[in-house]
Amino acid sequence: MTLYHFGNCLALVYAPYHMAYKFSGISEYATFSKCVYAGGLYIFTQLCKMLLLATFFPDSDGSHTSGDYDVFLEILKATVDFADLFGLYFALNSVPGKGHAKILTAAIGWASAEVLVTRSVALWVGARGSEFSWRYVRACAESNVALLQHSAVAALVWLAQRKDLPRAQAPLVLALLALAPYRALLEDAAAALLALGAWALLALRAAHALLLGLAALAMYAMLARQ
């Protein structure tokens, strides 16, 4: 039963990534190696972020154990996530082909590595229990939301480096990119203010990722029509 539950969880997590790779058309560009490269960039970026956090915030966990919450400190820690934007930038520039191929390849590789690092171990630990838990199904759903979120951010990074981006769209693209590292912080703050449960917070994150994705898609479509 443990292996069966673990297999179901893995299918829920990785099936959307496989379907996105197969049916988006990027498989025709032979971009699997680039997805792996983007995943490697994700791991390298996270290691750099861990070094920065350990260097500049060595005692940051002490505030949580004492029950205090330093908003300014959490904002500074979230600022380190700007490294993700640079990592996506290098991932995009390593992929040849059209814009949609660059965006999807970088996003799928980046998000797959995130799932591999943050979800697989947790799913295996949870699968070792004999009882079914909706917590791990929720973790699978969060991974799918992460794919949409990373695709939207990758599209924004691609738009920001385009020289033919309309001047009217540039402030919106830069503003969305500037807010991207603080996404989790803002969502957690909204959840605390509204007293949202785990599933309600997941719905909030999904709605946020969907709105961001639609905005990025609209600007991409306008640029592609030029």
Structural account:
This protein is an all-alpha fold. The chain has one domain. The protein has 11 helices and no strands. The protein has helices spanning 2-23, 32-56, 62-65, 71-79, 82-93, 99-118, 120-127, 134-160, 170-179, 183-194, 198-224. Helix 2 packs antiparallel against helix 5 (82-93) and helix 8 (134-160) packs antiparallel against helix 9. It is globular, with a radius of gyration of 18 Å. The relative contact order is 0.13. The model has no long low-confidence stretch (mean pLDDT 83).
Task: Give me the secondary-structure topology.
Layout: H1 2-23, H2 32-56, H3 62-65, H4 71-79, H5 82-93, H6 99-118, H7 120-127, H8 134-160, H9 170-179, H10 183-194, H11 198-224
Helix pairs in contact: 1-6, 1-7, 1-8, 2-5, 2-6, 5-6, 5-8, 6-8, 8-9, 8-11
Helix proportion range: over 70%
Structural class: mainly alpha
Count helical runs. Answer: 11
Number of strands: 0
| Count of the domains | 1
Q: Could you tell me the radius of gyration in angstroms?
A: 18 Å
Q: What is the molecular shape?
A: globular
Brief summary of the model shown:
This protein has 226 residues and is mainly α.
Describe the structure using short key phrases:
0% strand; mainly alpha; globular; 226 residues
